[in-house]
Amino acid sequence: MTTTDVDTDPEAARIRSLVLPDRVHGSIYTDPDVYARELERIWYTTWVYVGHASEVPEPNDYVRKTIGPQQVVMTRDKTGAIHVLHNRCSHRGNLVCDAERGNAGSFRCPYHGWTFANTGDLLGFPFNQGYGGSSARAQLPGLATAPRVESYRGFVFASLSPDGPTLREHLGAAAERLDRLCRLSPSGEVELTAGWVRHEVTANWKMLVENETDGYHPQFVHSSIFSISGSGIGALYSDKSTAVTRALGGGHTENDLSPEFRRLGVPMGWAGTPEAKIPDYVAAMRDAYGTDTADEIMIDGSPHVMIFPNLFVAEIQLFQIQPLAVDRTVQHVTAIQFAGAPDLNRRLVTQCVGSVGPAGMLLADDAEMYERNQRGVAQRRPEWLDLTRGLHRERVDDDGHTIGTATDETSMRAMWRHYLELMT
Amino acid sequence: MDVVASEFATVSVSVDDHGNGTRLRLEDLRTGTVRFLDALELESIVWAPESWMRALLDPSQHRWRDADRGPAQESMPEPPEEPPA
Q1: Disulfide engineering: A407 pairs with which of A72, A124, A216, A373, CB 3.0-4.6 Å?
Q2: In terms of domains, do B65 and B33 share one?
Q3: What is the dihedral of CA A129, A131, A136, A137, to 10 degrees?
Q4: B62: nearest CA in chain A?
Q5: Predicted confidence (pLDDT) per residue in A75-84, tens digit
Q6: Ramachandran bin of A77, using left for φ above 0, alpha for ψ from -120 to 50, beta for the remaining angles
Q7: Residues B1 and B25 in one domain
Q8: Is residue B23 part of a domain?
Q9: Residue A57, class by beta-carbon neighbours within 10 Å (0-12 exposed, 13-18 middle, 19+ buried)?
Q10: Smallest Cα–Cα separation from A113: which of B51, B57, B6?
Q11: Best residue in B3, B7, B63 to probe A by mutation, most A CBs within 10 Å?
């Protein structure tokens, strides 16, 4: 902190006083002023995950999506290009699209009939003499578009800032985790076609981001689903585990369970699915990659990675985090599907129904903790949340990333470091 | 009869064979307005340039045309008349 900072941006100095290397102040989760600054500095500036190309497979398909509280429409135009449009009529501000998804080359606002192409261009409006005739169209605005839209492996991100790092720079090492996910498909493609559950919690969005790669909680919070499903995953989150928590840079973090899966050495062991139950998938993988590489891919398994600020890939399911208010957050959840893997996909949907479906146990467990945590941090004492777990045993791996054990808070500390860079 | 619907419009589509040949019958189910399209008209739509379709989607061109500019239907700009011989 410098005197200049305090003079020119006292809010930045205040936030720096709330986020320390080994602890954060409770008000960082409850202060509406902090939240307002997060929207401007994080959600409306950095790359935010919007949707997946497989959700708009055909020309003129569209889906409604979000960038934090902002309602957007992700479209695929006639030429195949993907656009991210603000869902706000340029005339009187009405929501233009109401359906969650559809196929339309143009959108007509229900309020006064202004009509837009799915690229955002204004095509016309009723009774144009009121504007001096059809030539007025060229002077009137169309739907606003996200200044920057890029995709990686079909994952579409948008930035509401015209300037900043490229998507590839933003993703950094996290891009390889998306590669690791995609290579579990025989054709190297993920499809998000299983439908979505919209799960709202009364909690601040950062609690969710922190929890996604918190390896300390699963054995407590998720003990019931681990016990009834016979899953061995819970046991991997312990100090006896060779799994690691890794800071990937840019606020992205992961729980890397692959060392344990390699120790197990069983293809699809990570998914708890014996080869015999998915013979078509295993055969397709070996055809596509060759037996040795395919087995390596199927042993290493799927990533557990939190791509800051809102894309969480948890092995078989994908979460999109959407803040609505300082204490309201939605998780949009779907079962990941792999192109060319129908037998595996059926099992993944069934597993996800049990974990994150409307009556799923995993998401309900976490939701209970998020909401209790939000109520807890509103209490006056003690003022701080501790972030010291594993601080004394952090180390740097061969790739230069900071790592801790499976249960260490390495990921949270890394997230907060990046948070301060953006916020101050 | 099939229905092609979005949140923006709802149109029934059927092949009508009451005449001497087949034609497509389109009905705007929100108003009951009907238009028939014969094979050559359909082929022309298939080949129409994108700008033509964009112009067609301008509400002021037809249904919501200002009253002093002629009736709503059949009101797309007429082709220029041939000059007198």
Answers
A1: A216
A2: no
A3: -90
A4: A126
A5: 999 999 999 9
A6: beta
A7: yes
A8: yes
A9: exposed
A10: B57
A11: B7
Give the C-alpha separation, B71 to A147, whole Å. 41
Is residue B56 situated within a structural domain?
yes
Rounded Cα distance, A414 and A247, in Å: 6
Q: Is the pLDDT of residue A399 over 80?
A: yes
CB-based contact A409:A216 (threshold 8 Å): yes
Which residue does chain B place closest to A113, by CA atoms? Answer: B59
| B83 occurs within a structural domain | no
**B6: nearest CA partner in chain A:** A102
Q: For residues B32 and B51, state if they share a domain.
A: no
Number of compact structural domains in chain B: 2
- At a CB cut-off of 8 Å and minimum separation 6, what does A148 contact? A47, A158, A159, A161, A162, A164, A167
Determine contact: A112 vs chain B, CB below 8 A.
no
pLDDT at A202 > cutoff 90? yes
Whether the ipTM is more than 0.90: the answer is no
Q: Is residue B32 part of a domain?
A: yes
CB A192 within 8 A of CB A176: no
**Residue span of the structural domain in which B17 resides:** 1-37
Are residues B28 and B51 part of one domain? no
**Mind listing the domains of chain A with CATH numbers?**
49-152 (2.102.10.10), 173-423 (3.90.380.10)
Do B28 and B55 share a domain, yes or no? no
Let me know: does A44 contact A160? Beta carbons within 8 Å: yes
Cα separation, A375 vs A164, whole angstroms: 36
Number of inter-chain CB pairs under 8 A, A vs B:
57
- For residue B48, the chain A residues in CB contact (below 8 A) are none
Q: Do B26 and B51 reside in the same domain of the chain?
A: no
pLDDT in tens, A149-179: 999 999 999 999 999 999 999 999 999 999 9
Considering only CA atoms, which of A176, A404, A168, A185 is closest in space to residue A316?
Answer: A185
Question: Are B2 and B23 found together in one domain?
Answer: yes
Structure tokens at A250: 């840019």
